[in-house]
Design goal:
This protein is mainly alpha-helical. The chain has 13 helices and no strands.
């Protein structure tokens, strides 16, 4: 999986440089690049969980820190390459740089140990019997019975894929993570247009994003320190960042001073970056090792869906808001998402006794 992701990562950047002259080409190749990045990140995520069980949180925070620095450096790197080599040359060089995504997965080792299920399933034996074809009845069934059995097999596969629901708190964690990424996408898309709408010049509005990036870097460093001293829990991972984010977004409403807006952007960037590290670090606490891989995959799907939802809502808000003031139309939805996120944080904290047994 990581090898495929790394291959797509480098290939699509190179294809943008070769064939990205039209807008729809650019969208297709960059969308495929996002798929490759997701596959590569998932492979690295699983490798960290499998091979660093005891100190996973602190090492994962280091991984997130370097990933954040790399993402932050890509836009200025692209601009530098474009100024010297043009659009096509810039993306060809960037694609060549990103080919290291093919080499990195080769260095990752798969976990060869057999994991046993540590949680109870009332229908687990029945499910495996269906998958193995060990169903009772005559071996010579008619076509209707075979069709019925195929339907049962499909349902059984869906149940196995969704067996993460046997850990209710992990399901809450996934939803909390999805709401976090939804809020992040809306904030990132609205930031610069919001700055222009309150009277900032385009060159000054861009610094709102810069301030958010600086706050995010501080958030990654603080998250590493909290993980290093083993103080990461549901309150510090979910509730505190959600409150900080609400304060930052509320600051956008009450003031139009440029310096204050930069400060509030830094606060929002800090909260989002801190939550990003904290959420991924909390995964092994709420799901057993047997369901870890498929649970992580479901988590990636859910968070990706919420990110798309945030992008759709952001686009519609920008499209139909005639005043060019994009924050208020999505603000109630964002506040509701943050409220749900805080409720899940409280629930997770109440049931989290910091034991090693997943719930």
């Amino acid at each position: 999986m990581g090898l495929i992701g790394g291959f797509l990562f480098g290939l699509c950047f190179s294809c943008v440089g070769l064939f990205g002259g039209q807008l729809w080409h650019f969208f297709i190749f960059m969308g495929t690049t996002a798929v490759g990045v997701g596959l590569l990140d998932f492979a690295c995520f699983m490798s960290f969980i499998v091979h660093f069980k005891t100190n996973y949180q602190s090492l994962n925070s280091i991984r997130k820190l370097f990933a954040y620095v790399g993402i932050t450096l890509i836009p200025p790197l692209v601009e530098l390459l474009r100024s010297k080599f043009g659009f096509n040359g810039a993306y060809l060089i960037l694609g060549a740089i990103c080919w290291n995504g093919v080499v990195c997965p080769l260095l990752l080792k798969d976990d060869k140990t057999h994991q046993k299920c540590s949680c109870s399933h009332s229908s687990k034996k029945k499910s495996y019997d269906l998958l193995n074809g060990n169903t009772s009845g005559d071996s010579h069934k008619d076509q209707d019975t075979q069709t019925k059995d195929k339907g049962k097999l499909i349902v059984c596969n869906l149940r196995l894929l969704s067996s993460v629901t046997s850990h209710p708190l992990y399901s809450g964690l996934i939803l909390t993570e999805g709401l976090f990424y939804y809020n992040f996408v809306i904030w990132a898309i609205f930031l610069v247009p919001f700055g222009r709408s309150v009277g900032l010049k385009p060159s000054a509005a861009v610094f709102l994003s810069t301030a958010g990036g600086f706050g995010g870097l501080i958030g990654k460093l603080v998250a590493f320190l909290v993980c290093y001293v083993d103080k990461m829990n549901a309150i510090s991972a979910f509730l505190v960042p959600a409150l900080l984010c609400n304060c930052g977004v509320f600051g956008y409403i009450i003031t139009k001073n440029s310096l204050s807006l930069y400060i509030f952007s830094s606060i929002c960037g800090f909260s989002f970056a801190f939550s990003d590290t904290a959420l991924s670090g909390m995964v092994p606490r709420y799901v057993c090792s047997y369901h870890l891989r498929q649970g992580a995959a479901i988590g990636y799907i859910v968070t990706g869906t919420f990110m798309q939802l945030g992008g759709i809502i952001s686009g519609q808000s920008l499209k139909y808001n005639k005043r060019d003031y994009p924050l208020p139309p999505a603000f109630p939805v964002t506040k509701m998402a943050s409220a749900i996120q805080k409720c899940f944080a409280h629930t997770l904290y109440c049931y989290d006794s910091r034991s090693t047994t997943p719930r």
